[in-house]
Amino acid sequence: MFDRKSLQNLIKEKLTDYKFIVVSNRQPYTFEYAGRKINCIKTIGGLVTALDPVMQTAGGTWIAYSSGDADADVLDKDNSVKIPYENPQYTQKLIFLTKEEENGYYYGYANQGLWPLCHIAYRQPVFSISDWEHYKNANKKFAESVVDAIGLEKPFVWLQDYHLTLCAGFIKEKKPDAVVSLFWHIPWPNPEVFRVCPQKNEILEGLLSNDLLGFHIKYHCHNFLETCELELEAKVDWEESAVTYKGHKTLIRDFPISIDFDKLSEMSSGEDVSRKVNELPTQIDPPYEVLALSIDRIDYTKGILEKIKAVDRFLEKYPEYQKRFVFFQKGALSRLHIKAYKHLIDEIQSLAEEINWKYRSGYWYPIVLLNTKIDYITHLALYRACDLCIVGSLHDGMNLVAKEFIAANTDNKGMLLLSQFTGAARELKNAVLINPFDADGFADAIKEAIEMPKEIKSERIIRMRENVKENNIFRWAGKFIKELIRI
Predict the structure, then answer these.
(1) Do 294 and 225 have their domain in common?
(2) DSSP 51
(3) Overall domain count for the chain
């Protein structure tokens, strides 16, 4: 099995002479004031969950945008700080954006343009020319920070996600010999969808400045190759899965992202988590026999409204579960500057209140919403305590919550309900697969998961645990690095 030690050996053997640099919008650790004290807080999210253990193994520099209110007070003259703070393993180097730049680059073009463009969740993308200008300028700032971090060393640059489509081109202008790659964490749409983007050619040209482009699944690779062929008339080698444009070749590969299975599994079976599991029934307000769990960032692609509607339909079709079943939706608030997200929060709250009023009986009601932060021990305890974990994304590149739940489910107690529209559904085929747009089928799947015989449930969970353990985050990073080494 390819593990942390295997990745360390690969890096020592092949990357000793290179400066290893990861670049993302989100920083792995923020520094926040608590009164006069400064706390170092690990960022929650799929990208950080996946890449932080890789960087702790590889070392190097992680460049990101500063979002912590105390960041500036811990940085050195190079805008850098060693992290994790209590046990430094690598360097975090931050760039700073004005409010206007942040609104245009992040809340504007990246999340009102590219995000809805790439997700089939029926939200029309908005492309503003002023947002595009901020997006370009932010990409230049990231690239300048990379070039500054490279110095005289040979660089090995790994860009992350849709925020940085132009960054490779700007890096190559200053460092043409730099080895630059990008991993795309969200779906890539089919050419008919992508062609509506006014800046499609600039984005494709920026992405093709990379030496390697990674996607979660082959379907997204295929969509990208077809898009390049139709929009740029680039030379596409379908057999090699590569695009040659203006004399430069970019390899296109699928790398299904994952998690640090062993660490998550070990933490979940530890005393702190076990103690918290025993406390949860007294801390969740309504009494329950069956606990269903979802943990999401509040986003219209995550299908939160659809999950609540499915719970309503489940309780209608199977009234014997009234007063016994509770759905606990943990939702991290995000992108509140965007009207669509504010409206979504209101919709979720309103629908939950309506359904709770419909079924409420004494102390019991079926839907619990929690938007406040929880510590990671509670996070893992919820995974262990629940009878079913519901991942109901309308469209998702991978979804690491599904894999986290499998790793944390050390006693094989719970079952995973997984949207067929996630990348994870290609790997976790022993989950109960659902169509979140089909409320009746979704309701039936909830009943199936609850009533599944223990021995069958255990067998299916064990198979999924073996899959996630084998295809862990270190294997993912190793495959990506090996591909880059060939370049």
Answers:
(1) no
(2) H
(3) 2
Which DSSP category does 71 fall into? G
CA distance 395 to 18: 37
Tokens of 450: 């609850």
Looking at the fold, whether 318 and 457 belong to one and the same domain comes out as yes
pLDDT of residue 339: 86
Q: How far, in Å, CA of 214 to CA of 251, rounded? A: 8
Residue 391 tokens, joined: 């991942």
Tell me the residue range of the domain where 439 lies: 261-469
356 vs 353: CA distance, rounded Å: 5
Q: Assess contact for 277 and 243: CB atoms under 8 A.
A: no
Task: Please choose, from the candidates 296, 259, 261, the residue with its C-alpha nearest in 3D space to the C-alpha of residue 396.
Answer: 296
pLDDT of residue 485: 85
Phi, psi of 325 (to 5 degrees): -105, 135
Q: Please tell me whether residues 204 and 348 are part of one structural domain.
A: no
Q: What local confidence, expressed as pLDDT, does residue 222 receive?
A: 98
User: Which segments of 67-128 does DSSP mark as H helices, in order?
Assistant: 99-102, 115-118
* Interval 58-93: pLDDT, tens: 889 999 999 999 999 999 999 999 998 888 999 999
Q: Residue 76 and residue 87: Cα distance in Å, rounded?
A: 18
Question: What pLDDT is attached to residue 33?
Answer: 93
Q: State whether 14 and 118 are in the same domain.
A: yes
Question: What is residue 368's predicted lDDT score, i.e. its pLDDT?
Answer: 98
Tell me: do 369 and 387 sit in the same domain: yes
* pLDDT value for 169: 98
Give the pair of three-digit tokens for residue 172.
């190559």
What is the CATH number for 318?
A: 3.40.50.2000
C-alpha–C-alpha distance, residues 63 and 183, integer Å: 15
Quick count: other Cβ atoms within 10 Å of Cβ 8? 14
CA-wise closest residue to 197 among 231, 161, 235: 231
* Residue 294 and residue 267 in one domain: yes
Q: 218 with 265, same domain?
A: no
383, two tokens: 């995974």
| Assessment of whether the complete model's pTM goes beyond 0.90 | yes
Query: Do 103 and 337 meet the contact criterion of CB atoms below 8 Å apart?
Result: yes
Q: Which residues of the chain have pLDDT under 70?
A: none
Same domain for 232 and 314: no
DSSP string, 391-434: E--SSBS--HHHHHHHHH-TT---EEEEETTBGGGGT-TTSEEE
What Cα–Cα distance (Å) separates residue 57 from each residue in 20, 53, 180, 261, 308? 12, 6, 20, 15, 40
